[in-house]
Design a protein that fits this description.
Elements: E1 6-7, E2 10-11, H1 16-19, H2 22-66, H3 72-99, H4 104-124, H5 134-170
Antiparallel strand pairs: 1-2
InterPro entries: P_starv_induced_PsiE-like
Transmembrane segments: 39-61, 73-95, 107-125, 137-157
Keywords: Cell membrane, Membrane, Transmembrane, Transmembrane helix
Amino acid sequence: MNNTEQTPEGPSEPDDTRSRSLEERYSLVIGRFVQGVELAAATVFAALFAIGVVDLMLQIFEAMQSGSITDPLVVIGFIDTGLLLLIIVEVYQTVLAYVEENETRRIVQLVIYTGVIAMVRKAIIFRTGEYESTMDALLAAGSYGIIIFALVALLFAEQNYGSESGLLAAE
């Protein structure tokens, strides 16, 4: 059965509202709502990134004026902020991948990249003096190492699996 009607302007689209069940219409409305919220989240992350870049530039400028730009802890602070901005970009890209309904593999890649950047950031700013005991610092360092190793292993597995699936798709 063809629901398309012929009008003087040409064929019209079927009236989806009448042909869909209440559940289907509700699902469409909720889907559009979620996509709108995802776009709002992407906008928030883009704004946070822009604010962070401006803030980092101001911090660098102030450090240059005060002469503290040569202090290793100040430079590590810049690196920390820069890596945090990269994490924001990766989260932004992940949200966009959801909005654009990219394939799951792309979303998983973005999540892994975000995790790697976050853990590298933690390793760079790691200070043993921030822990109550040497054992606490050692436990935290070991945990960071395990998480980084696991993320790199996931990235390696994902890239190898992706290569194999790409070969299979080409055949």
